[in-house]
Design brief:
mainly alpha, single chain, 18 helices, elongated, 364 residues
């Protein structure tokens, strides 16, 4: 238990003591009775103040978990809850939300405002879970700030403790992929499948891996399955779908996928591209003079999108009516799975913790 949690527990004990003393003195008459009423009143006031943070946190959580939740509308309420006082676990959740949706510096501060060294020295497994969740959020902060090495270092530190949750698998896979550590990426994705942590976000990352390898057919197969089995609300799979369609010369369908992205997805601090960048890509596809340059850019170096860079459109790119034959992606799904098994060269030896955090509002 952290010092902060100990103080909260001590404060709760004080309130209970005041209530008990107040109740005892109220049974007397005269001055003692009024003293008892005083103690009782102070205890009730402190009880209300002590509960306000939890009240606002619950209110913001209900708003966040509603249908089509306005995430940014909940952030001021969460911030008020933090100021009034909530559990450390709640602060980490709020910090994660701010890293993704709000003021990133506030988010970073919320994830580091308690003494990690003390928490890490505790035997309480719940405290350890809070620490590791905070570190995963911090790794995301540094990734958004384009400090990939720092993000990767923090995520690997968490991984090496044996802690596992959905956020760690998604974030660490993202960092490995962007860093070009493909062997580590493939092993981690396989582990996520074995441990039942294979989520739509992980499946999309696997599709991105195949795009990086210029294996457009396998990427298309994974994306087809993803859209058939889930309804993604983060931008990545729509962008990757557009790239696959562009590779096969389907300009209009690629542009349609990007427009669908804008309609169905919420842009966050953690989105791989901003809305204005997506608008630029749509404009490239709409103009014949630039669509060929965009096609040439993704075919020559498809990893630019994994690195979150915008393509450089060269002028004078020759136009061609010849495109690769688009395969039947559905026939490739079983083949892809089989080939993955054949390519496997060993697992990362790991163990799951008893409980795993659900990814808070995916953020998309």
């Amino acid at each position: 238990m952290s010092n902060k949690e100990k103080k909260r527990k001590a404060f709760s004990t004080l309130i209970i003591s005041l209530l008990v003393i107040g109740i005892i003195f109220i049974t007397y008459s005269g001055v003692q009775k009024w003293i008892g009423i005083g103690f009782f009143t102070v205890a009730l006031i402190l009880l209300v103040l002590n509960s306000l943070g939890t009240f606002y946190y619950s209110k913001a959580s209900r708003l966040l978990n509603g249908e089509n939740p306005p995430v940014k509308d909940s952030l001021p309420i969460f911030e008020k809850a933090v100021k009034l006082g909530i559990e450390t676990k709640g602060e980490v959740v709020v910090g994660t939300l701010f890293v993704q949706y709000g003021d990133m510096e506030k988010g970073k501060a919320l994830c580091t405002l308690y003494d990690l060294a003390i928490l890490e020295g505790c035997l309480d497994s719940q405290d350890n879970k809070v620490v590791q969740s905070a570190k995963i959020s911090l790794s995301m902060y540094y990734w958004i700030k384009n400090d990939l090495d720092k993000a990767l270092s923090i995520a690997e530190e968490v991984y090496n403790t044996g802690f596992r949750d959905r956020n760690l698998y998604i974030n660490l896979s993202t960092y490995y992929l962007e860093k070009g550590k493909y062997k580590e990426f493939k092993k981690l994705v396989k582990e996520s499948k074995d441990k039942n942590f294979y989520l739509p976000a992980t499946q999309d990352l696997e599709a991105a891996y195949y795009i990086a390898q210029s294996d457009w057919a396998r990427a298309g197969s994974l994306l087809k399955n993803l859209f058939e089995t889930s309804k993604p609300t983060f931008i990545d799979p729509f962008l990757h779908k557009a790239l696959v369609l562009l590779h096969y010369g389907e300009w209009d369908e690629a542009a349609k996928a990007l427009r669908e992205l804008k309609e169905k997805c919420q842009f966050t601090n953690a989105s791989i591209y901003t809305e204005s960048q997506i608008d630029i890509l749509i404009a490239y596809l709409d103009e014949e003079s630039t669509r060929w340059g965009l096609l040439e850019a993704i075919n020559s170096d498809p990893t630019i999108f994994i690195r979150r860079e915008m393509p450089t459109i060269k002028s004078g790119v020759s136009m061609s009516s010849s495109f690769p034959s688009k395969p039947d992606f559905s026939e490739l799904e079983t083949v892809s799975s089989k080939e993955d098994e054949e390519e496997d060269d060993g697992d990362i030896d790991t163990s799951l913790t008893d409980d795993d955090e659900e990814w808070i509002k995916k953020h998309s």
